[in-house]
Write a structure and sequence with these properties.
The chain is of the alpha/beta class. It contains 6 helices and 4 strands, in the order E-H-H-H-H-E-H-E-H-E. A 4-stranded parallel sheet has the order 3-2-1-4, with helices on both faces.
Length: 135
Amino acid sequence: LKAMLFVDGTWLYYSLFERGDRCAIRELFGEDWQTTHCVDVSKLPAVIADDLTAQISEQLSSPRSVEVVRVLVFTSYREDVVSSQRVALFQQMQNLLFEVHLGSFQGMQEKCVDIALAVEMLHYATVPDAYDIGV
């Protein structure tokens, strides 16, 4: 089975790095977890493929492997930001050949990341044999 990952990069970034006291990673590894641990986004497709394979095999009582064929990441950041931890995260994803769809905005309001993700998901749903599972 072919899977495509549609990642809300803005949500991912804020979940990893901007949750403060509500961060599950911080609870588990301590306040300075970023100095002792790193997030290896290159493992994301394999982790999701393995989990989907296990879920499907359990539900269908027959093994079916899942392969992640494409990872699309949707995010935006302010036009005046040149470099930051956030920019570095998405550059790393681009270097891993994830398709990073980058928007920009002015002020403090991010818009359209979720809409762009939904549009691409629907687009690829119309492409024959593009994917069997969208995550």
